Amino acid sequence: MNTFKVGDLIRQVNLDLFKYNDVSVEGEVTNFTRSSAGHCYFSIKDARAQLRVVLFAANARFLRFRIENGLQLIVRGRLAIYEAKGEFQLNAVSAEPAGIGALQLAFEQLKKTLEAEGLFDPARKRAIPMLPQSIAIVTSPTGAAIRDILNVLGRRYAGLSVQIYPVRVQGATAAREIAAAIRNLSRWELHDVILICRGGGSLEDLWAFNEEVLARAVADSAIPTISGVGHETDFTICDFVADLRAPTPSAAAEIVIRTRSEICTQVDHAVHRIRSLVEGRVLNYRHELRHLTSSDRLGLLPRRVAATRERLERRRLSLFRLLDAHAKLLRRRLAACDVPLSQVPSRIERERQRLKATVATLNAVSPLSVLSRGYAIAFSRVKNRRKPILDSNAVQAGDAIEVQLKKGRLECTVDARTLGLESVWPVVDEIK
To answer: Are residues 22 and 65 in the same domain?
Structure first.
């Protein structure tokens, strides 16, 4: 009996499983997860068992649909044991929905998502202009669709401004090219309507018109769009998102512009409706006018007008009298104001003379007038306050004093005190 190391045993089992290097297994998806690197991990199961599956990002990027729990898949790959955990698993290289094609499943999944977002809502779709002046056609410049469109447009209304925006309508890059064309036309805003067209083909041929990038570009277009892709039985995501679906490219050309005769006929019908409406209203107004002229109450109208005119005249006279009386009152008040006003100049002259006399008196007793005659005033400093010196006994030798002159002042120091002439005069108290 041989004893194996774990790694050796698993390696040997993996070699034995090499005969299952390319197997397909069908089952229901469960426990699906996707890593940040893009690897897909899930299990497929039936009523009796389940099998772990890993689909690496290098292979997962080729899937046209989303793997979801509950989806019935046919997974193709190689059976192996994951050595790090000792888990039996299927290393998948591809996956296909069981019973339905991958493209059809991807179509249904994207349709469900966009419908939930409201991109198919009829309320958001815009009306196609009745007579567009400029039309943009996004399609292949070499296909049969563009020839059919130009033939129909030329037959229905010659002289239209038509611009062809050439793009691929099939292949891996077709959806991005068509989306870029629609975004550019929407940004330029040079056209009244955009036709997105392609001839018929298989689901794979028309797949570019089922890509999400194209659907969102059509939904975001600032210009109304018409989708004419494939045959009448073909439906694409672009058809659901566009403002209007045409069953074929030729039908799109017929929808976008009516024939000159149809337009003229519609205009004639509109003119006829307007004329009939106007004539009907005129007849109604004439009938009402005849009824009013024949009415007995209409004869009262002149008397009512005359009575109103007389009433207005009376009010006009009353207003005139009122204004005249008010004007006379104002004149009397103005005349009464003239008498006091004439007395103002003499009163002003009297007050001026009184002011001059007062000024002369003030100048006579003003200290400045005394100082101008050669006198001075001596001040002592007591706590930062000046006090006039009236008696030499009020200061002592060495005290600082200020002498105010007519112009300026002197800061002095008392050297000695002497008795002035007035000191020999008798004091009032001594006389008593």
So the answer is: yes
**Which of 215, 245, 261 is a domain's end point?**
261
Q: For residue range 265-287, list pLDDT tens digits in order.
A: 888 899 999 999 999 999 998 88
Sorted by sequence, the CB contacts under 8 Å of residue 299 that are 6+ apart come out as none
What CA–CA distance (Å, rounded) separates 253 from 150?
8
Q: What is the CA radius of gyration of the chain?
A: 57
Listed as own residue / partner, the contacts of 48-51 with beta carbons closer than 8 Å and 24 or more positions apart are 51/25, 51/27, 51/88, 51/89, 51/90
Instruction: Report the alpha-carbon distance of residue 153 to residue 162 in Å, rounded.
Output: 9
Task: Look at residues 261, 296, 328 and tell me which one is the last residue of a structural domain.
Answer: 261
Domain range spanning residue 31? 6-99
Average pLDDT estimate for 10-35: 92
Tokens of 233: 């039985």
Q: pLDDT tens digits, residue range 283-337?
A: 998 888 887 777 666 667 778 888 899 999 999 999 999 999 989 888 888 877 7
* Residue 12 in tokens: 């040997």
Read off the tokens for 228.
């004419």
The DSSP annotation for 18-70 comes to GGGSSEEEEEEEEEEEE-TTS-EEEEEE-SS-EEEEEE-HHHHTT-SS---TT
The number of beta carbons lying within 10 Å of the beta carbon of residue 325 is: 10
CB contact set of 241 (below 8 Å; sequence gap of 6+) = 114, 119, 120, 215, 218, 219, 227
Rounded (10°) CA dihedral 283, 284, 290, 295: 170
The b-or-e profile of 329-338 (16+ CB within 10 A means b, else e) is: eeeeeeeeee
Instruction: Tell whether 89 and 154 lie within a shared domain.
Output: no
Give tens-digit pLDDT for 333-354.
887 776 666 677 778 888 889 9
